[in-house]
Write a structure and sequence with these properties.
- Helix 1 crosses helix 2, helix 2 packs across helix 3 and helix 4 packs across helix 9.
- The protein has 3 domains: 77 residues, Arc Repressor Mutant, subunit A (Orthogonal Bundle); 98 residues, 3-Layer(aba) Sandwich (D-Maltodextrin-Binding Protein, domain 2); 92 residues, Periplasmic binding protein-like II (D-Maltodextrin-Binding Protein, domain 2, 3-Layer(aba) Sandwich), CATH 3.40.190.
- The protein has 287 residues and is α/β, with parallel strands linked by helices.
- The chain is globular and about 75 Å long.
- The strands form 4 sheets. It has a 5-stranded mixed sheet, with helices on one face. It has a 5-stranded mixed sheet with strand order 11-8-12-7-13. A two-stranded antiparallel ribbon has the order 1-2.
- It is built from 9 helices and 14 strands.
């Protein structure tokens, strides 16, 4: 499986062979053995190019998941015999870090007291290899084969406003009604059209915001003051929605499924500090 996955990601058997310290012929034998076991071809290959078969595409994703689970299990076993220590560089989106990650770090510190944590909170997707980051948290897909992605939990967005605002301006009952309202947008996504879904329809809407803000807590403050409607993560809004300080609108619609993930580079020799944090995060946040 490792030979197969590496061949697909590297683009050729010769490149995979160099990474795995095998001969190209041996890599080919491993893939041929897989196909013989499965009773079907998984990789179309010629002297010039290779491509996955329809079954091979699905099998490739399954193999990646299996190999990842094996790696995590091996990390857990190795972690029993070595103590985590040193500096761990982490980056995370501001809202997730402030509402969920920071409160959880007290428990991690109790487990790994010798690890020094350096956190960079930003909503920019930094290149973790170039920036020397050990662990990053991301929202949405990760289009990089160098990176291992561990999906943790859904990241739901909610449309809401203060009772004061809704009493004065009315409550939108359809996504198209938002064009009649003051929508305060998050700067990074202000120009990105939103897709609203319900059981039958998909409606695309692009907010025409007179105010954009680059911080979730500032957006929250603006909404609570009655300034307008915001669309923010449920984890940020939960307490105010429960208390009634903010009211959810368009509750029959949702903004698609996005996932919060932990990502890290495919280390050849993963250090105990990285292993310890990966294990902690999976146990703490994975649903």
């Amino acid at each position: 499986m490792k030979a197969f996955v590496t061949t697909v990601e590297a683009g050729s058997m010769s490149s995979a062979a160099a990474q795995l310290k095998l001969t190209p012929a041996m890599v080919g034998q491993h893939i041929a053995a897989l196909e013989a076991r499965l009773g079907t071809r998984i990789l179309n290959r010629t002297t010039r190019r290779q491509s996955l078969t329809d079954f091979g595409k699905n099998y490739f994703e399954q193999c990646k998941d299996i190999l990842e689970r094996v790696a995590i299990t091996e990390m857990e076993a190795e972690a029993q015999s070595s103590e985590a220590q040193g500096v761990l560089n982490i980056t995370a989106p501001v809202t997730f870090a402030t509402t969920m990650l920071m409160p959880a770090l007290k428990r991690y510190r109790q487990l790994s007291p010798l690890v020094k944590l350096q956190l960079m909170l930003t909503d920019q997707n930094l290149d973790i290899v170039e920036e020397g980051i050990d662990i990053a948290f991301r929202i949405g897909p990760i289009p990089d084969s160098r990176i291992i992605q561990r999906i943790l939990m859904p990241y739901k967005m909610v449309v809401c406003a203060a009772p004061e605002y809704l009493a004065k301006h009315g409550t939108p009952i359809h996504p198209t009604n938002l064009k009649e309202h003051e929508v305060i947008s998050f700067t990074k996504t202000a120009d990105t059209p939103l897709k609203f879904y319900n059981d039958e329809n998909i409606v695309e809407h692009k907010a025409q915001s007179m105010i954009t803000v680059n911080n979730g807590y500032a957006l929250l403050s603006a909404a609570k003051s009655g300034l307008g409607i915001i669309i923010q993560p449920e984890i940020l809004l939960k307490k105010d929605l429960e208390s009634g300080t903010l009211l959810r609108v368009l509750s029959d619609w949702h903004l698609g499924e996005r996932q919060l993930s932990m990502i890290y580079y495919r280390y050849k020799n993963m250090t105990p500090k990285v292993r310890s944090f990966i294990n902690f995060v999976i146990k703490e946040f994975r649903q």
